[in-house]
C-alpha cells in the first residue's frame, strides 16, 4: 500500500522529482528519461511508470534551459519507438510461453484469438490510439506481437503514434508548463492530462457500442 502511495506521489509530483534528478545527475538525466519511457512502453510489467506527465514535465524543464528541447524530443521519441518495438517482439517470440504461464491468468488463447481478429481489422488505429492511454499503451504492442500483427503495419503506426505522443506532450510542457497557474497547480494539470489521455479510447468504445 505504501509503495502504491509513493508511486502516486511520484506521478502527481513528477515536476519535483524530475527537478531533483536534473540537479543530482545533470546530463545523465537524458539517459534516465530515456530508460523510463523505454520501460513504460517496452515491458508489460512496468505500466505504472509515468508517461504523459513525464513528457510534459520534461518539456517544461526544457523551456527553462535544463534540457535541450531538440535533443530531448529526439531521445524520447527514440525511447518510445524502441520500447513499443521491443514489446512487440517479446509478444511475438515469447507470447505462447507467457500465455501458458499460470502466473499471468488474464492472457489466454481465447484472448489471443480476439487480439488477432481485432488487430487484423483495427490494428493501425489501435496502436496509434493506445499511445495516449496509460497502461493500454504498454499492453497494446505486446498483444499485437502475440496476435502476429504484420510488423510492416505495426512499425508505421508505432512511429506515427510515438511522434505525436512525444512531441505533443513535450511541446505542451515547453510552451505552457511554466505559466504560473500551471506551475503552481501541477498536480491538477497531471490529473487533467490523464483524463485527456483516456478520452480517445472512451470515444472509440462508445462508438463501437453504438454500432
TrEMBL record:
<feature type="transmembrane region" description="Helical">
    <location>
        <begin position="27"/>
        <end position="48"/>
    </location>
</feature>
<feature type="transmembrane region" description="Helical">
    <location>
        <begin position="185"/>
        <end position="206"/>
    </location>
</feature>
<dbReference type="GO" id="GO:0005886">
    <property type="term" value="C:plasma membrane"/>
</dbReference>
<keyword id="KW-0472">Membrane</keyword>
<keyword id="KW-1133">Transmembrane helix</keyword>
<keyword id="KW-0812">Transmembrane</keyword>
<dbReference type="InterPro" id="IPR032818">
    <property type="entry name" value="DedA-like"/>
</dbReference>
<keyword id="KW-1003">Cell membrane</keyword>
<feature type="transmembrane region" description="Helical">
    <location>
        <begin position="159"/>
        <end position="179"/>
    </location>
</feature>
<dbReference type="InterPro" id="IPR032816">
    <property type="entry name" value="VTT_dom"/>
</dbReference>
<protein>
    <recommendedName>
        <fullName>VTT domain-containing protein</fullName>
    </recommendedName>
</protein>
<feature type="domain" description="VTT">
    <location>
        <begin position="49"/>
        <end position="173"/>
    </location>
</feature>
<comment type="similarity">
    <text>Belongs to the DedA family.</text>
</comment>
<dbReference type="Pfam" id="PF09335">
    <property type="entry name" value="VTT_dom"/>
</dbReference>
<feature type="transmembrane region" description="Helical">
    <location>
        <begin position="55"/>
        <end position="79"/>
    </location>
</feature>
Amino acid at each position: 500500500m505504501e509503495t502504491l502511495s509513493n508511486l502516486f506521489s511520484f506521478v502527481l509530483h513528477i515536476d519535483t522529482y524530475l527537478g531533483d534528478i536534473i540537479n543530482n545527475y545533470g546530463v545523465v538525466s537524458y539517459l534516465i528519461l530515456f530508460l523510463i519511457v523505454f520501460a513504460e512502453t517496452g515491458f508489460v510489467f512496468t505500466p505504472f511508470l509515468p508517461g504523459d506527465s513525464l513528457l510534459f514535465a520534461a518539456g517544461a524543464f526544457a523551456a527553462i534551459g535544463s534540457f535541450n528541447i531538440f535533443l530531448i524530443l529526439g531521445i524520447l521519441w527514440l525511447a518510445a519507438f524502441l520500447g513499443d518495438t521491443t514489446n512487440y517482439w517479446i509478444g511475438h517470440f515469447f507470447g505462447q510461453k507467457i500465455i501458458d504461464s499460470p502466473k499471468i491468468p488474464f492472457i489466454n488463447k481465447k484472448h489471443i484469438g480476439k487480439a488477432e481478429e481485432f488487430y487484423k481489422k483495427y490494428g493501425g488505429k489501435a496502436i496509434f490510439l493506445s499511445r495516449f492511454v496509460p497502461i493500454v499503451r504498454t499492453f497494446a504492442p505486446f498483444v499485437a506481437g502475440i496476435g502476429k500483427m504484420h510488423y510492416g503495419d505495426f512499425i508505421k503506426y508505432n512511429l506515427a503514434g510515438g511522434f505525436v505522443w512525444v512531441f505533443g506532450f513535450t511541446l505542451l510542457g515547453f510552451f505552457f508548463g511554466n505559466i504560473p497557474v500551471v506551475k503552481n497547480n501541477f498536480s491538477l494539470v497531471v490529473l487533467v492530462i490523464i483524463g485527456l489521455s483516456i478520452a480517445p479510447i472512451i470515444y472509440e468504445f462508445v462508438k463501437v457500442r453504438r454500432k
